[in-house]
Amino acid sequence: MKKKQFFLFLLLVTAFFGFYFLGKNNFFPVNLKLFTPQKIAQTYPTGTPTPTPTPKPLTFAEMNSLYGPCVRVPVLMYHHVQDMEVAVGKNQAALTVDTDTFRQQMQYLKDQGYRSVYASDVLNFFDQGTPIPAKSVLLTFDDGYDDFAANAAPVLREFGFVSTLFVSTGLVDNPGYLSWNTIAYLTAKGDVLFANHTWSHRNVGANRADVEREITTADNQLAERGLNSPKLFAYPYGLGSSWGKEILEGLGYKLAFTTRPGSTLCEKQRLELPRARVGNSSLETYGL
Ligand SMILES: [Zn+2]
After folding, report:
1. Residues 219, 228: contact at Cβ < 8 Å?
2. Which residues pair with 277 in a beta bridge?
3. Distance 142 CA to ligand 1 centre (A)
4. 50: in domain
5. Of 156, 245, 168, which is closest to residue 204 (Cα–Cα)?
6. How far is ligand 1, taken at its centre, from the CA of residue 236, in Å?
7. 69: preceding bond cis by omega (within 30 degrees)
8. CA distance 154 to 147
9. Residues 37 and 70 in one domain
10. Fewer CB near the terminus (10 Å): N or C of the chain?
11. Ligand 1 center to residue 2 CA distance, Å?
């Protein structure tokens, strides 16, 4: 019996010292700290390092929280629409989408279930929250070439697509460009919206006074004909200066398109919206 009690005593003593030393480790905070998640996070870098210095494009959700509200609308930019043979003869191939290719592109949009919106619909989304349905596309044509009326407009009408034209008003009525009469005719048809692209197709990288005069002159010429209300703009050659946006803001402009790629249109970027220049490839290659 005594032997049994002794062993029990020995067991208790061992257990006591065992727990004591085990517990003693807990008195060394250094040891503990080594295993806290914070310490691990500090010691080991989390996430995968970026293989190249190219910044990762922001997701829609990230853009929405930074610059929103945002809407996903691909904005396609066209210039000439004409037969490529004619374009080559006029040295306009680089800015031309062949008429047959253009028709195939519009057919593709229709087959994929796209509908078209005006640039002013984007403004209504920003200002009034008017929703833009999914699978909307914005078709824009720059400079005001006369082949728009001859080649693009009939195809657009056939597919029931609306468009927004950015015209350089000083070029109107010149050979190769739309006339004010044709602009009035297209406006009356109700499926083309005309907007500002400066007076002489001037880069906004020019000096401030010149740019202001260019935009104001075009603004007045459009307003005289009841056009460009609300005020919409597309930068010739893209956004080439830090003052381009300031000038537009001062003149009451509500939206402006650059040549920056992307299809997420955000309210806080309303004067530097992205646009994709379309060539003669399938629209599938532009992510549509
Ligand atoms: Zn242009």
Report:
1. yes
2. 77
3. 5
4. no
5. 245
6. 4
7. yes
8. 11
9. no
10. N
11. 106
**CATH code assigned at 246:** 3.20.20.370
pTM of the model: 0.80
229: which DSSP letter?
S
Is 276 a domain residue?
A: yes
Indicate whether 20 and 94 sit together in one domain.
no
Domain that holds residue 103: 60-286
Task: Give which of 81, 57, 4, 48 is closest to 287, Cα–Cα.
Answer: 57
- What the block records as the tokens of 268 is 């806080």
**215-234 pLDDT per residue, tens:** 999 999 999 999 998 999 99
Place of tokens 């000096």: 207
Kindly tell me the sign of the dihedral angle through the C-alpha atoms of 215, 218, 219, 220: positive
Phi-psi map region of 252: left, alpha, beta (phi>0 left; psi -120 to 50 alpha):
left
CA of residue 211 to ligand 1 center, whole Å? 15
The DSSP letter of residue 50 is: P
In 3-state terms, what secondary structure has residue 117? strand
28 residue type, one letter? F
Residue listed under structure tokens 């009525």? 173
| Buried residues in 160-170 as b, exposed as e (16+ CB within 10 A) | ebbbbbbbbbb
